[in-house]
Amino acid sequence: MNVQIYMDHAATTPVRREVVNAMLPFFTDRFGNPSSPYREGMEARQVIDRARSQVAEVLGASPEEITFTGCGTEADNWALVGAAEMGRRRGRHIITSSVEHHAVLNSCRYLEQRGYRVTYLPVSEEGVVFVEDLRRALRRDTILVSIMTANNEVGSIQPIAQLAEAAHERGALFHTYSVHAFAHISLSVEELQVDLLSASGHKFGGPKGVGFLYIRDGVSLEPFLHGGGQESGRRAGTENVAEIVGMGEAARLSAIRMEERAVHVGQLRNYLIRRMRREIPLCRLNGSQENRLPGNASFCFAFVDGSALVLRLGADGICASGASACTAGSGQPSHVLLAMGLPGELAAGSLRLTLGEENTRAQIDRVVERIAVHVAELRSRSPAYEEFRQGRAHRGILRYFPGNG
Ligand SMILES: *Cc1c(COP(=O)(O)O)cnc(C)c1O
């Protein structure tokens, strides 16, 4: 496959060469089971513990607070279901937001079917949860609050420290889905004061099929998988040694010059946003200009079918996504954009470009140029756009494009 321009880093990231090299021996010569009592086993145990320290260090956590899982989704399911079961006697109320990833939302639906009550907090136009809304929603029987660190679709960063503080005042645990923020922006569990934090290896230069859950010392969770005593009895199943090693190495590398990299990627993103706004009519930036993940640029175009645009870019060798990779093909407008107050017809015209450090300005120039061509072409076939152009209908849409159009 010849990927020309990859701008979908929120879907997955290329595995770093150093990470591949670190993993390879554990698929071949060094294949021991970490539970075995001889040298090969002890060696595997040691490299897992090193990876645990590498991940912990990025968060300012201690290694015993990190448990490896089979993916980010598993870590979310475990955090939600494990905390709900553990807190069952105290209460059955959970609070989350309306813009969470489906790994959290569908875990909440599962719990609702089992007698738990879930409150879904609204968000601002920029996709941010209001701390006051959380305070009002907290009850005596609230056992868990789960709010993502940063949104996967529009990149908005949530006020996690304040939200966690509000939850703790009422005795609830606080979980955050950090899959798109961990190793991209600096996160400290001491500053954030979260109890549970989940992330996934393949969103920061590691392999797919491995993730972790941070569990604050003193917090106990019902195990999610039952079996052997691996991971201190918290997560049964033989450890995925090679991938855990890979994720540890990716975490270690990401911590080197993280701030500098975030600034660099943020500058590329700002360049992209500036050009898009200047050159494409009726193009809206979703979320806030400043308070967003460094690599995220999410747009809505009026009178354009976002999935058609993504397909055309794909044919040009440009990898992008609609609102998110997971809902692609569902034909549904993004629940995140709807929760942010966008009308369905605009939400259906969304495009997410997520940049990584290897992207260049020349690539951005090419992408903007192709988007301009496709947007104009798709609009030329839209009867609604024709009506709009002639001033006959759809003028209300202009309010979503201040200073543009
Ligand atoms: C990031 C992401 C997830 C969560 O991480 P996994 O390790 O893949 O579970 C799930 N689905 C999609 C589409 C994602 O982009």
Describe what you observe in this structure.
- Strand 5, helix 6 and strand 6 form a beta-alpha-beta unit.
- It is globular, with a radius of gyration of 22 Å.
- 39% of the residues lie in helices and 13% in strands.
- The protein is of the alpha/beta class and 405 residues long.
- The strands form three sheets. A seven-stranded mixed sheet has the order 2-8-7-6-5-3-4, sandwiched between helices.
- The chain is built from 14 helices and twelve strands.
- The site of pyridoxal-5'-phosphate has 11 residues, from helix 3.
Entry keywords:
globular, single chain, 405 residues, 13% strand, binds pyridoxal-5'-phosphate
What molecules are bound to this protein? pyridoxal-5'-phosphate
Uncertain segments? none
Structural class: alpha/beta
Strand content: 5-15%
What is the element string, with H for helices and E for strands? Answer: EHHEHEHEHEHEHEEHHEEHEHHEHH
Helix content: 25-40%
Residue-averaged pLDDT, rounded?
Answer: 96
C-alpha end-to-end distance: 38 Å
Shape: globular
Seen as an oligomer or otherwise, the chain set is single chain
Provide a count of the helices.
14
